[in-house]
Fold this protein.
Amino acid sequence: MSASQRDIATVILARNEAPTVGEAVSGAAGHCARVVVMDGHSTDETVEISRRAGAEVHRDPGLGKGAAIRASLGLVEEPVVVFMDADGSHDPDDIPRLTEPVLADSTDLCVGSRFTGGSEELSMTFGQLIRTIGNIAMNVAINERWKVQLTDTLNGYRAARRIALISVGLKANIHTIEQEMVMKMLLAGYRVTNVPTHEYPRRFGDSHIKIWRQWPRFVGNVASHLVRRSRPVPKS
C-alpha cells in the first residue's frame, strides 16, 4: 500500500445490491486503506457478501442516502473519503483520479463528471434524459452563482477532505445531499472541482431514485442555497 492510499477510505452506499457489491468492494480495496459499506437495511445477501469481500459493514440510520453519508463521516478516520455506489455503475479504478487532487491539496471536493468521462449513461432512457437535463440546468445556476465551471454536481462518485465535509454541517437525508455538499462547500469557501469518470448503467435492478417524486426536492434544495450568503470557515 502506498503512502497516499493510507490516507483514503472508500464508503460504498448499498441497499439490496448483492449481485454487484462484492466486486465494488474488492475493486475499491486496491486503492485505499479501508472500505466501509453503509448498508441500507438490505433484505438480500448484501451484508454477507460485503464482509466476505473484505469490507467493514455498518447499518445506516435508515433515512436515505444522505443520512448514510453523514453517518459514515463519523466511522472513518482517514483524511480523504471517497463515496461510490454499489450497483456497478462506478469504476473503482477511477478512485486515484478522484483522490489525487484532494491529496495534492488542489481541491477540497472532487466530483466525478459523467459528461466529460466515459459515460454509457449518455445512451439513456427518457427518465435518465429528464434527470440529465435537470442536472445541467442546476449546474448552470451553481456556476453562475459561485463563478465556477462545474460540469456535474449530482454524480455520487466523489472524493473529499473528511474534515471539510464535517465542518459544513450537512443535513440532507436523501440524495439531495450530493447537491447540498457541493453548495455548502462553495458557501464555506472550499474548492470544488470535477474530473472525468466512467459511468455505466446499473447491472441489476432499478435505480433507487424516483425521479418524478424527488426532482422538486432537488430544485428546492438548489434554490434555497443560491440565496444564502457565503460564510467561509477557517481552513484546517
